[in-house]
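Incident log, structure service

09:12 report received: a user says their structure output differs between two submissions of the same chain.
09:20 pulled the input from the user's history:
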Amino acid sequence: MTALLKRAIGLSCAVLTLCAAAAADGQTYPNKPVKIIVSSSAGSFPDLAARSYGQQLSERLGQPVVIDDKAGAAGQLAADLVAKAAPDGYTLLVCTPGPVTVGPHANKVPYDPLHDFAPITLLARVATAFAVNTSMPIQTFQEFLAYAKAHPGALSYSHSGNGSLMHLGGENLKLLTGINMVGVPYRGAVASGTAIGAGETQVGFSDLLTVLNLREAGKVRILAVVDPARSTFAPDIPTASESGIPGYDAGGWAMLLAPARTPPDIVAKLNAEAKRAFDLPEVRQVLTKAAIDPAIMSPDETAALLRNDYEKWGKVIKEAGVKFD
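09:34 re-ran on a clean worker, output below:
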């Protein structure tokens, strides 16, 4: 037997051994508690999505699932902990876009968002709305675009803070349409919506629940949701994409990630359990009441979304010269 043939046989055996080990991991997983680290605070929508998933995962697979909320450093603390964890499926991350698609463009982070994680699935999206004060002569999103183009620099839009997804969404809107409006930062989505209702800004972004309450009080008109699809919570409100800006998306999401090199069988199992859990009527009901839409994807689709949003927001930050607080 030649040395070359011996080497080829050795490599083949090594590959088969690794495949067998991965299959064994997938079959026996989990055999101890699983920890899900959430990049947001308790009570946030990613926390709710993680707890809904964790409860079902625990009941289904017979092991405790511990939810650990770590909102420090804009979610980057949680992301770093998971990026450095053992790739065995026992430490997972549920995060918003911030620590993996926005923050890495603002400052140096101790992990690579595109290479240090194994995407499992998107869990859910939270509806973000674009609204106008009722004193404005604007009824639809198309009328807003026409008004903004006819009155360059005259409109101010509220958002939930410099560098937030709502801020980036507003700057991307300006880049895509050529309109000129001034961003005004507020401390969070609720304050941003309240500013629109009070007339402090003429238009702006907020979470859907806040502006629905303001609409009921006659203070705002909701022109669109800035998400890929209409919200099941308020299906009457069109998306910005179908209202004049195809493909426009500035909505938030919660994504489930594992450390890079987690065995594919474990990733597949966690993805399948997410789909099963979020298809349950009782889980959907809990999420829908909070204006959260389940949005399960395959691992490949999740990886594509992560990369797309990372590149999109990086481009917006650079071209718009976005400054972070």
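09:41 both user submissions now match this output. Likely a transient worker issue. Closing.
09:42 reviewer note: The two ends are 66 Å apart (CA to CA). The longest strand covers residues 117-126.
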